[in-house]
Amino acid sequence: MTPFFPDVPKIEYGGPKSKNPLEFKWYNPDEVVGDKSMKEQLRFSVVYWHTFCNNLSDPFGVGTALRPWDDGSSSVANAQRRVRVAFEFFEKLGVPFYAFHDRDVAPEGRTIKESHANLDEVVKVLKDEQARTKVKLLWGTANLFSNPRYMHGAATSPNFDVFAFAAAQVKKAMEVTMDLGGAGYTFWGGREGYSTLLNTDMKREMDHLGQFLTMAVNYKKQIGFQGQFYIEPKPREPTKHQYDSDAAACLNFLRTYNLLPHFKLNLETNHATLAGHEMMHEMEVAIGAGALGSIDANTGDPLLGWDTDQFPTSVYLTTQCMLCILNMGGFTTGGVNFDAKVRRESFEPIDLFHAHIGGMDAFARGLKTAQAILGDGRLADFLKSRYESWDAEPGRRVEAGQSSFSDLEAYILPKGDASRNVSGRQEMLENLINEFL
Fold first, then answer.
1. Which domains are seen in the chain, by residue range?
2. Burial of 281 (C-beta count, 10 Å sphere; 0-12/13-18/19+)
3. pLDDT tens, residue by residue, 338-363
4. Is residue 337 within a helix (H) or strand (E), and if so which, with residue range?
5. What are the beta bridge partners of residue 330?
6. 104 an active-site residue?
7. Is 30 flagged in the annotation as binding?
8. Which of 214, 233, 332, 386 is deepest in the core (most CB within 10 A)?
9. Which residues of 49-196 form beta strands (DSSP E)?
């Protein structure tokens, strides 16, 4: 078969001194970092939507992307050809996983029955290409936000028929994900929120969303799907407020509807920024609840207040991400998924390789830096010493739920006052991190 990227060889590791833009400088998949290879630690995944379906249009202009393999049609044949393009890309880049929405890989039909049939035809090619390349599906999902029927939301729509349509669409997407051996399934509430509370019964909409996800859990058990369920937080855009606004809101929602045992979070850096958080904050919130499952690797532009989905290049950012992941023991289900797109001005096919190579190198450096920081021990030692007063008997009793206000009053009265605080040493710790960069 004629290659779709004839001028691009398989991307190899060239080392930090390489000047070849089509070589990895830091990502060496077989290099062991900690107790696993880089490939196992990072579990890189390429997204289907931004990489192969995004024409790089924006609100001010039509698409600029040059994609010679795409005839611009919504035919099944064009979708099947795009699958072969994607897997040549995955194979040359050397990633073990990919992720998709149902409407990325197959065109929507005039009816849901026709849409199901289109998806089935494309899945045949996906299965063939997975078998040929050994690239696996990290997670699948359903696009419940692009079609005008979802203008008021999907699971939170005031129109019951839309709710039912969304359920049927998710049912099929779950079946396809299972058929393809997907390691997980993600729910992203693109329009599950509101633009004004004047026309919104928030309690009722959230109850409907809780019922929708409960039905998904029940169907997962019914079909025997073993993959992990994820929810991906985002505070706004396209709605003013989305119900899955950040990690804490998602966890609260899951606890309210008794869904926490069935879900983990898939966190994205750019969404954390829109929520007014750092990615490390969102990750620590999820880790504290035992609910961090996977991450979408991207970043935003600090001068633009919207979801730019740029490729990550900051080693400081990737080091923070990998410190969190290594501290929790590494991934067990998810991975580092590049939910990122090239810039509108980077319109040639080769730019897709440059962008992913840079992101993979940034995370490889972050992984090695984080492992070195953990091996050094000073950061962990400082954190332990900062809370050492809690390790004595009175503190341990409080943490175990075995103390009362009266007990604490009896403890502090003889002292007369609290002991003197010690410095948080923020600047010293920031300097420590910079030692490794």
1. 12-376 (3.20.20.150), 380-435 (no CATH)
2. middle
3. 999 999 999 999 999 999 999 999 99
4. strand 336-338
5. none
6. yes
7. no
8. 233
9. 97-101, 136-141, 184-187, 193-194
